[in-house]
Amino acid sequence: MRLLYGDDRAVIEFVSMMLPNDRTAFANARGIGVLDDDGRLVAGVLYHGWEPEAGVIEMSSASLSRRWLTRPVLDAIFRYPFEGIGCQLVALRVSERNTHLHRILRAFGFAEFFIPRLRGRDEGEIIFTLTDDAWRSGRFQKGATHGQEGRERSAGA
């Protein structure tokens, strides 16, 4: 798997075709795509709804395969909001039926908030949130410094 940066339009189109969201929600989104060994786009993550004053951004993703969520891909996906643009919290909206993704997000340290009927009369949604502190201290990040060493040296200089 390889990451695709800089082609936001392709990632927006890919994710929009697979998610029931209003396409206008992704109009100004930034995206990271995931390419398979043949160079085919098989997954995409969109960052949208950026609130710089609050340091909050929403993420939406879609994929053709479950194989795309490797540790290096997860690291890149979260490195962008937390280190690239300085978010203090990311949020994801997930169907109550997507139990596979629920397990992954819980293992990654996300907090969750269930809202009945948010996707219609017969389907609720879970809002998953992850803070920068939880990301840096999470089990997937053990041993990673995420630029902290450089910041500490700079602060002491």
From TrEMBL:
Superkingdom of the source species: Bacteria
InterPro entries listed in its UniProt record: Acyl_CoA_acyltransferase
Protein name: N-acetyltransferase domain-containing protein
Originating organism: Aureimonas ureilytica
